[in-house]
Amino acid sequence: MKHLLFSLALIAGTIWSAAAAEKKIVLIAGRQSHGPGDHEFRAGCLLFKSFLDRQPGITSVVHSNGWPKVADAFEGADAVLIYADGGGGHPAIQGDHTKILNALAKKGVGIGFAHYGVEIPKDKGGAEFLEWIGGYYEHQYSCNPMWSPEYKKFPDHPVARGVQPFSNRDEWYFNMRWTEKKPGLTPILTAQPSDAVRKGKYVYPHGPYPHIIEASGRDETMMWVFERPDGGRGFGFTGGHTHANWGNPSQLKAVLNALLWIAKADVPKNGVEATATPEQMKENLDPKGRK
Q1: pLDDT at 29
Q2: Which of 138, 134, 67 is nearest to 96 (CA)?
């Protein structure tokens, strides 16, 4: 009987430990914007989910068309990603959303933002972004050209595991506004824009900006991670305008690795294995321009 009780206790302990190790990642996909193939927030988040849910101990949920409509959306969350339009309409600064995210951050929940989602007004959300993820896109300080950075080298960091050199043309933002707490900030994707890129018209507002030109020859950061002083984690990823670019295994891997990392889950030795098929890349696209 003692052996049976011991075995049952061991099994119960194992089940409890497995349950305790579960990590929940909440993916918030913004409302439809732009034309077909661009700003496909829902399709992108569902693609992330398809690979995240294959990872041991990971569960993910996608909330489409903006801020979650259910009251318990963040219950048990270990990480939150917002992949959506930003600026003045950013989901993070509507109503009491900043307060909600701040409370999550203070509990140690990881927070990430992708593409336009890294842009926030300086005087409404800027300070919080510096605290949550260590940087943000500031209007007329940062810039958003369409260009093809060459990502050739990566830091010794879990988020960079398995990421191979790659390049694709996208709206890669750079010249972020950075936190002064630099010890917690680690650039993941860096490249050097050419002078032609720096002198371009950008997307909006049209450049060139003198301070961007004056930084000629400087490496720029297009993806970064941040370890907050309280131990919480965050990241920013500036690409993701063009949905087709998620078909690049290294771009996809970098973001999936980051989602695991901010959730404080183990990142596999070679990163998350993620190669999207052509069929997967066509799934869940918004019905933009369709009759």
Answers
A1: 98
A2: 67
- Within the chain, residue ranges assigned H as helices are 2-21, 41-52, 97-106, 126-132, 195-198, 210-213, 249-262, 278-281
CB contact at 8 A, 190 and 167: no
Residue 14 located in a structural domain: no
* CATH number, domain containing residue 57: 3.40.50.880
Range of the domain at 69: 23-281
Q: Which of 6-15, 92-101, 271-280, 281-290 comes out lowest in average pLDDT?
A: 6-15
Residue 200: CB atoms within 10 Å: 18
Quote the pLDDT of residue 182: 79
Q: Tens digit of pLDDT for each residue in 180-216? A: 877 899 999 999 999 999 999 999 889 999 999 999 9
Q: Are 208 and 199 in contact (CB under 8 A)?
A: yes
> Region 26-49: what's the mean pLDDT?
97
Domains in the chain: how many in total? 1
Percentage of the chain modeled with pLDDT above 70: 92
Instruction: Report the C-alpha gap between 155 and 116 in whole angstroms.
Output: 25
pLDDT at 112: 98
| C-alpha pair distances (Å), 7 with each of 1, 10, 15, 17, 21 | 10, 5, 12, 15, 21
263: Cα within 13 Å, side-chain hemisphere: 28
**Closest-CA residue to 79 (of 34, 27, 12):** 27
- For the chain, the straight-line distance linking the first and the last C-alpha, in angstroms and rounded, comes to 70
Tell me the mean pLDDT in the region 228-251: 97
For residue 13, being part of any structural domain is answered with no
